[in-house]
Each structure stands twice: as C-alpha cells, then as structure tokens.
Design goal:
497 residues; mainly alpha; Growth Hormone, Chain: A; 2 domains; 17 helices; 77% helix; globular
C-alpha cells in the first residue's frame, strides 16, 4: 500500500476526524493505564476509611492487575469477534460502572470486587483501543505520529495517575480516584459514537475455549505467585507452586495454539521477529517503569518527607519528557531510521536516566538530582514506547488486529507485575542484609533503605539495557519500513461527519 491511501488522501475534514478519533482512543487508554497507579497514593486514606489491615492493602492493586493481565488475550479476540467499536464502547461503560461501584464501596470486599471488575473491563477496552488505532492510521508517516501520541499516553499514564491521585486525595476524597473514571469514560463514549463509525464484521473467529482457560489461569497463577512472593518472601513454598503451575499452564497454552484450528493467539503474531522483539522490549521496559514509580514514591515520601500532593507533582517531568520523546522526536525518527535503532537508543537513554538515581542521598535536592534523572529517563521511555507499540502491531492480518493489540498490553502488564515483585523482594533483602547483626537505629535504617533503593534502580537500569539489546539484536526493521497493518484499508473505521 502506498502513502496515497483513501484516508491519507482525504479531505482536511477527514483528517481532522481521524485525529479526533485518536484523541478519543488515547483518552480511553490513558484511563486504563493511570488506574494502575492512581489508587497508590490514595491507599492510606482508603485504608483508614474502610478499616482494612496492611496485609490486605496490596489487593487493591493486585485485584486490578490480576483481572487485567489474565483476560487481555480473551478481550482482544472478543474485539475481533464482535467488532472493535462495539467492544470499545462496552469496555468503557463497564469500566465506568465498576469505577462507580468502587467509589461508593462501603467495605473492603466491595472495593476489591470493583477493582477486579475494572481490570476485566479494562482487558476488553485496551486491545480494542489499540486495534482501532492500528486500522485507522494506515499511512506510515501518520501512523508513526499517531503511535507517538499513543505511546506518550501509555508511557506517562502511570505518572499522571500518581499526580491525579495526589490532587484528588488532597482536595476531595480517595473515592474520587475511582469516580473520576465515570467522567472520563462518559466523554470517551460520546466521542466514540461521534467520530468512529462501526465496520461490519465479515469474519467471525471461533473462541478457543481451551486456550482461554489455560492462558487465563496460567497468567493468574504467575501474577499471583509474584504477588505472593512480594508479601511472603521467596522462601515460601507456595510461591514456587503458583509460579510452576503458571508456567506449565502457559506451556500448555502454547501447545494448544499450535494445534487448534482457531487459536486464541495465533503463534504467527508473536513469532514474527520484529513483533516478537518489540513485545519483549515492551515486557522488559515495564520493569524500569515500575522501578521508578514504586521506589521513587517511597523515597520522596519517606526519606524526603513529601506529601502525597508534592509527590504527585514531582513526577510531572515524566509525562512531559515521554511526550517529547514519543510524539515529537520518536514520531519523526521512526519513519526515517526504523524501530531497531530507535528502541536501541531509547533503551540506553532510559538506562542512563535510571543510573542517575544512584546519586540519591538522604538529603538530596529535587532539582539537582531527581529532576534531571526523571527527564532523561522519560525521554528514553518515550522513544521506546512509540517505536515498540507501532512495531508490535504492524503487518498483522486484519482478523488478528485485536489479539495482537492484546498481546502488547499483556506483555506490558505481566512485565510490570513481575518487575514489581522482583524489585520489591530485592529491596527487602538488601535492607535486611544491611541491618543484619546491627542495632537498627534511625540513621542505620535510613541508610539501609537508601541502599535498597540504589539496588532497585541499578537492576532497573540493567533491564533497560536489555530493552536496548532486544531492539538492536532481534528487530530487523530498517529505515522507512514501519508498515501498516495488513489489509488495513479494508477495515479502516470511517469517521462520522
């Protein structure tokens, strides 16, 4: 397909509607991503209000990630089956209702149920959003710009969630960290009906029920296993039981996919060298993201004494620098140099930013130490996200667009869950080893905690170097070869005038 596709050669008005559709899709994606972090800052207030213990508070986060990560592939296939706009709208409405339920929750059990429902509808919404983007923008240059914007939102959503959570908790109530989704979803639903016209589903794939069961239970077991390790330690036997069961179920899923007529995740989607390399990069980069969001939040609040509001605002350089890296620099770099070079450079830049956090001390200033590290880190992440997401969803068959998009979100979610548990356990072990055999004075505890942060940031930097290697060694795409989705022009949603 050439650049002179029907859409790219359309009127200015058509162009405007296509970019307005991007705004609607991006708004929905932002809501899903920020909800993974927006409740973090609100947790202490919610805990006091509902009266649950420290041993239960992790489930406010884990219930969302468990449902979201384990159901994404099914959500992607359902979007291929029932139509992307329809699935997109159903996901938005369900997410809004689940958020409202959590916002009015009178007890811990109802809050956890609402968070799990948010994750389930998010798993329906996220792949539909990304597949709509994939089939809407078919011109390579416009597609690079669109994915630059989308990558910026996906990469900065976590930081925006921390900021928004701090503002809402400080000035309203922790409940608005959930209720705000009702407003966002309502705007996105209206935008979807106005700017995205549904396309008739001509081919309805069958549901691979054996694949659904094995991958859902397998991912649940893996995510739960790492969450269990974070709480109970790596010496707990059940940690390895959950992980082993999860790995076996995922292996069974791969075998099933290679043999059934209508696989949930066609192996051709992930075995393509370029897409596979991009998916690996997306999975590993989530470790670095969670390393910053988790431990830098602890450092600023516990070591520097920042309030939740101050901590939220302190993360502002991340969405700004990610946007610069993805939407401005990355969107121009991708068509010219290709994803291979861009992910390689982005990984090294982000790793350099992470290494700057090694300069943190017990009395470090924000502007001299934290700010420059966030800027460098965020810029590198922007380069990675825009290139990796575009590559991971390019050249897929039309009927696989939804499930390919789901694979992107699955790798990101599972990578983040694994990274959180891994870094948390390494941090705890570092602190324990630093204090072993010594009287835990406040000064020693503070220094041991700082050493734990340094270790977590170092491991995150190593992970980001691995992202650079995944881009440089696996991906083969060269300059000018960022192609649109196969057969996209026959499935491009037209915009309502």
């Amino acid at each position: 397909m050439t650049a002179a596709s029907p859409l790219s050669a359309g009127t200015a008005k058509g162009r405007d509607h296509r970019w307005l559709a991007l705004a609607v899709i991006g708004l929905a994606q932002l809501m899903v991503v920020l909800d993974a972090t927006i409740v973090n800052i609100a947790l202490p207030s919610a805990q006091t209000d509902l009266g649950f213990g420290d041993d239960l508070r992790q489930w406010v986060v884990t219930a969302y990630s468990l449902a979201f990560g384990s159901l994404l592939l099914l959500g992607g296939r359902l979007s291929d089956l029932f139509g992307r706009r329809r699935t997109f709208v159903i996901g938005l409405i369900g997410f809004a209702l689940a958020s409202a339920l959590g916002g009015i929750a009178a007890n811990f059990e109802l809050l956890i149920a609402a968070r799990a429902l948010q994750g389930a509808f998010g798993a329906l919404l996220a792949p539909a959003a990304l597949s709509l983007l994939t089939t809407t923008f078919t011109d390579p240059k416009e597609r690079a710009r669109a994915f630059g914007v989308f990558g910026a939102l996906s990469g900065s959503g976590g930081a925006i969630g921390l900021l928004l959570g701090g503002v809402l908790t400080e000035y309203t109530s922790w409940r608005w960290c959930l209720l705000v989704n009702v407003v966002i979803a309502a705007a996105a639903v209206i935008g979807a009906f106005v700017y995205i016209k549904p396309v008739a589903v001509t081919t309805k794939p069958r549901i691979d029920y054996a694949g659904v069961v094995t991958i859902t239970l397998g991912l649940v077991a893996i995510v739960y296993g790492f969450s269990y390790a974070e709480t109970n330690g790596w010496d707990a036997g059940l940690t390895y039981v959950f992980l082993a069961v999860g790995v076996l179920l995922v292996a069974a899923f791969v075998v099933i996919q290679s043999r059934v007529a209508h696989p949930l995740l066609p192996l051709r989607v992930v075995l393509d060298r370029n897409r596979g390399g991009a998916l690996v990069a997306i999975g590993i980069v989530a470790i670095g993201m969670f390393g910053v969001f988790l431990f830098l939040t602890y450092y600023m609040q516990q070591t520097l004494g920042y309030s939740s509001l101050q901590s939220g605002f302190a993360f502002l350089p991340i969405p700004v620098s990610i946007s610069l890296g993805a939407a401005l620099v990355g969107a121009r770099m991708l068509p010219r140099f290709g994803a291979k070079l861009q992910i390689f450079v982005g990984g090294l830049v982000a790793a350099a930013g992470m290494l700057l956090f090694q300069r943190l001390q017990l009395d470090s200033g924000y502007w001299g130490v934290v700010f420059p590290a966030l800027v460098v880190f965020g810029f590198g992440m922007g380069l990675i996200f825009s290139a990796a997401m575009a590559t991971a969803t390019s050249n897929v068959e039309r009927q696989d667009a939804g499930v390919a998009s789901a694979a992107v979100n699955t790798f990101q979610q599972i990578g983040g869950s694994i990274g959180t548990a891994l870094l948390s356990s390494l941090f705890a072990s570092s602190v324990a080893n630093s204090l072993a055999g010594q009287r835990p004075t406040p000064e020693l505890v503070a220094q041991a905690t700082l050493d734990g942060y340094h270790l977590a940031f170092l491991v995150s930097a190593i992970a980001l170097v691995c992202v650079a290697l995944a881009g440089g060694l696996i991906i083969r795409r060269k300059a000018g070869e960022v192609a649109p989705a196969a057969d996209a022009e026959s499935d491009v949603p037209t915009m309502v005038h």
